[in-house]
Design brief:
Length: about 100
């Protein structure tokens, strides 16, 4: 048995995501059928439906906006930690140079 190739990362428009969620909510097709019809994984479709429920306040969790803000803050925090590390090293270097 050969290994399956990993799926390439694809990005979708918010309109497409909303359409997928709406198809699942209507109930005419199962999540698995919607995933198959649009060549998506069942997990991706379930995650999108779950996130839509969180955004609508029907389920507990971080909303999409909160997730984006958290990711932005983590990136900024990582950059600032790097800046502090550089400044710490520069301070140590110049402290030894002036002695």
């Amino acid at each position: 048995m050969g290994k399956r190739k990993p799926r390439p990362h694809r990005s979708f428009t918010p309109g497409f995501k909303a359409e997928i969620v709406e198809l699942c909510r209507r109930g005419d097709r199962s999540v698995g059928q919607v995933a198959k019809d649009f060549d998506l994984t069942g997990t991706a479709v379930r995650d999108r439906v779950r996130q839509a429920e969180v955004d609508a306040g029907q389920r507990d969790g971080l909303t999409s906006d909160e997730r984006e803000e958290l990711a932005r803050l983590r990136r900024e925090n990582r950059r600032l930690r790097g800046d502090v590390d550089i400044l710490r090293r520069a301070t140590a270097f110049f402290a030894t140079e002036t002695r």
